[in-house]
Design brief:
Number of domains: 3
CATH topology of the largest domain: Rossmann fold
Order of helices and strands: HHHHEHHEHEHHEHEHEHHHHEEHEHH
Number of strands: 9
Structural class: alpha/beta
Largest sheet: 6 strands, mixed
Number of helices: 18
CATH class of the largest domain: Alpha Beta
Distance between the termini: 100 Å
Length: 379
């Protein structure tokens, strides 16, 4: 029996000591075997080949590192994440289909575990994708289309192929965020130039979706559903709108977050009510909530955080030694400034100390505020 292309790729990669490429080829080789007798073995070795997600992501191929961002499921803080019932149902559907992916593959039943999330900016589409990866305990990969778009004709399609070629070899959650940037509706007569390149990119994404293996969960997201290509949308099994949250939901989200971060004492019910009625989604509310918590912690801890004025003046900034007879000289440390001041008794130093502190350190250290009041001719 002749070697398959994936068998040959494994041999080539091992011969060149390219462990990453060998792992990818081995995963592709396992995916080729759909027999029932090898099902348990395939599942076992696939798990070994995927290994630790953090190691996997620290060794991304160099040619896709600039536009594929990965994160480990262990890094997701689930206790801080608020899930609405409407999103929980979608998550359950995706998880169920992932769990039966191998069984369906053995029965030669193709199913693309693909979902389109759409809604206004800030509603939490990307975070939902990370939550799904966390629930499935799979690495989460995120395509940055702004980095992927290539100025050369066909370059973007090639970059997309590289990403799918990598992700197809491992169980993972792959997110195409802002998919409307590269998968817009095509004109009936075809286009040229930049529009033609976008059409080729759209076709490339559809071709990759057609080849998507059962063990990859793909999530596309957009806030411009009206311009996403119709043929692409037909290839996405689930379509779900993520709407702005209600006041009750925002209230619950805030309370869950401050409980998980042990910051309940900093946020009273009036602040929660104000935030929940002023804003409409997590993208709007979370920066304001975090900023409010930060300010509250500062007010509580400022005496511990901020040193007194003497310590601040003595240890920060660039010391400026000003001469009465020539231009200023900068000193990087307090010691250098004192040495310069002592060297020339016609000098005085700004950005300095209190009177008592000055007298102890050097004869010619001069407090900056007092210098402004009394002028340079102090002596």
């Amino acid at each position: 029996m002749a070697l398959t292309n994936n068998n040959l790729e494994i041999i080539k990669a091992i011969a060149k000591n390219d462990i990453h490429r060998a792992r990818m080829a081995a995963m592709a080789s396992l995916a080729e075997d759909t027999s029932k007798k090898n099902a348990d073995m395939i599942k076992y070795y696939r798990k070994l080949l995927v290994g630790n997600a953090s190691i996997l992501m620290s060794n991304l191929p160099s040619d896709i590192q600039t536009f594929l961002v990965g994160s480990s499921p262990g890094g997701f803080k689930a206790d801080r994440y608020y899930v609405r019932e409407s999103e929980s149902a979608i998550v359950d559907d995706i998880i169920k289909m992932k769990y039966v992916a191998d069984e369906m593959s053995l029965r030669d039943i193709p199913y693309k575990n693909t979902t389109l999330l759409y809604g206004e900016s800030g509603t939490g589409k990307t975070e939902l994708g990370k939550y799904i990866a966390y629930k499935l305990n799979l690495p989460f990969f995120y395509i940055s289309f702004s980095s992927m778009i290539d100025s050369y004709m066909g370059g973007t399609a090639k970059n997309i192929h590289k990403v799918f070629e990598f992700c197809n070899t491992i169980p993972c959650v792959l997110m195409l965020d802002e998919v409307d940037c590269v998968a817009t509706k095509r004109s009936s007569g075809g286009s040229k130039g930049a529009d033609g390149e976008l059409e080729r990119t759209t076709i490339s994404i559809m071709q990759e979706l057609d080849k998507l293996p059962n063990h990859v969960v793909l999530i596309a997201a957009t806030n411009r559903l009206d311009i996403v290509d119709d043929a692409l949308m037909r290839r996405l099994s689930i379509k779900h709108e993520i709407k702005n949250m209600t006041t009750v939901e925002l209230n619950a989200m805030i309370r869950q977050y401050i409980k998980a971060t042990d910051t309940e004492k900093y946020i009273d019910k009036n602040v929660i009510a104000e935030l929940a009625t002023t804003y409409h989604n997590p993208g709007q509310i979370m920066p304001e909530l975090i900023k409010f918590i930060g300010k509250a912690i500062f007010e509580e801890k400022k005496d511990e955080i901020i040193p007194d004025n003497n310590d601040t003046n003595a240890n920060t900034g660039v010391w400026e030694v000003t001469y009465t007879w020539k231009s200023n000289v900068a000193a990087e440390t307090e010691e250098d400034a004192i040495a310069i001041a002592r060297h020339d008794r016609n000098s005085y130093m700004t950005k300095g100390f209190t009177e008592e502190y000055s007298a102890k350190k050097a004869d010619f250290l001069y407090p900056i505020d007092e210098k402004k009041q009394n002028g340079p001719n102090r002596w």
